User: Which sequence fits this backbone?
């Protein structure tokens, strides 16, 4: 795991891991949506109470989601 | 639509609508996760730049998600 907690790279790694773990039962997008919900739910329950930091984490997760989604799309185009 | 934009009730109504729209192709949870991602992605792209207001909306969506999930669970228990 990337030690830079809640960075874009940290979330990308986590997303890839989840996709791999669930590849037999869910599509990558289903897995990513589920992870996205779980993580944001946890982030906003977190008692850090610094709105700026919460938004930073959420934005990083969102960026990671979009980057991984773009990677998947590209891979699928190569395969077809 | 409830006129109280981005309230818990507003999001609950939207979630129910999405679930109904997609009931032939996706499970309620898949639909909710997809909606959750789409809405949060939009909320954080929004140029309102008031972190407090962003967090309020995200928390309301999260609360609505949990309430609708609990409703679905209860309905499923009644059916079985």
Assistant:
């Amino acid at each position: 795991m990337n030690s830079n907690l809640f960075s874009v790279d940290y979330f990308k790694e986590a997303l890839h891991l989840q996709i791999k773990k669930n590849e037999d039962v869910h599509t990558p997008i289903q897995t990513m949506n589920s992870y996205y919900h779980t993580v944001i739910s946890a982030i906003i329950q977190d008692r850090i109470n610094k709105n700026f930091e919460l938004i930073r984490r959420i934005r990083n997760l969102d960026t990671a989601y979009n980057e991984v989604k773009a990677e998947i799309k590209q891979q699928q185009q190569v395969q077809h």
Q: What stands out?
A: Residues 45 and 54 of chain B are 10 Å apart (CA to CA). The two ends of chain B are 32 Å apart (CA to CA).
